[in-house]
Design brief:
There is one protein chain. The chain is of the alpha+beta class and 229 residues long. It has helices spanning 35-48, 50-57, 74-82, 106-124, 160-176, and strands at 7-20, 100-103, 128-146, 181-185, 193-197, 204-217, 223-227. Strands 1, 2, 3, 4, 5, 6 and 7 form a seven-stranded mixed beta sheet that branches. The chain is 29% helix and 29% strand. Helix 2 (50-57) crosses helix 3 (74-82). The chain contains five helices and seven strands, in the order E-H-H-H-E-H-E-H-E-E-E-E. It has one domain.
Length: 229
């Protein structure tokens, strides 16, 4: 499938990804444990954390040797690939393998994240939530499938039931060719550009930025405010 598409060599010095700040915090039990208990807590986390299990012996379609070690943001990079959602695949990854989704502008990320959270709240029937998201900057270089001039590609269909199966097939073909990822026009933010990194090693120079608070107060349109880091 990737053979019929545009392959581009690209250098992206700064992209942005949003992750829930809950994933940046230490366990709430840490302050209650003494030095001896902390070792036990670490053992418990190792037995239940998808990221740590993936680093030790792989997880799903992610082999342990694919993950990265000793580089800035390794925890976040590995988590992005280890924490796949079996019942909710994404556009370019399935149930057994995650991906690193980012964009060239934080406004694009906010639109993408906001769309999915709003859809979740719609299922509950209650538009009441406050969620903080932190910026994670990263750089990329290498070869990518480039869909930026192909907005009608099947993988970009706005209905996940149609777009996601095509996107997963495209991602499988791109990985088989060793391509670092997929560049594509944002489906939820017209004019925005997104990237899906398909291999952990493709994500470089991770650094944390500011925090954005998304607030739903009875309306499907969230209010967004920046919390400077």
């Amino acid at each position: 499938m990737a053979d019929a598409l545009t392959i581009t060599r690209e250098a992206l010095p700064r992209t942005v990804r949003l992750v829930s700040t809950a994933r940046l915090r230490e366990t709430v039990l840490l302050g209650l444990a003494d030095a001896a208990d902390q070792a036990a807590l670490a053992e418990i986390e190792g037995a239940t954390s998808s990221r740590l299990m993936a680093q030790a012996r792989g997880s799903g379609d992610v082999a342990s040797h694919e993950l990265v070690y000793g580089v800035p943001g390794a925890v976040f990079i590995n988590a992005a690939f280890a924490y796949a959602r079996p019942r909710a695949p994404n556009r370019f990854n399935g149930a057994d393998r995650g991906a690193w989704y980012a964009a060239l502008a934080v406004e694009t990320c906010l639109a993408e994240v906001g769309f999915h959270l709003t859809a979740f709240l719609a299922d509950t029937g209650v538009y009441e939530a406050v969620v903080d998201y932190a910026e994670l900057f990263a750089s990329f270089a290498g070869e990518f499938v480039d869909l930026r001039d192909d907005p009608e590609h099947a993988s970009l269909h706005p209905d996940p039931r149609l777009g996601y199966p095509a996107g997963n097939a495209l991602a499988d073909a791109a990985r088989a060719r060793g391509l670092n990822g997929i560049l594509y026009p944002s489906v939820r933010a017209p004019g925005g550009t997104c990237i899906a990194a398909l291999f952990p090693h493709a994500v470089q120079s991770v650094a944390q930025g500011d925090v954005h608070r998304m607030t739903w107060a009875g309306s499907p349109e969230p209010q967004v405010s920046r919390i400077v880091g």
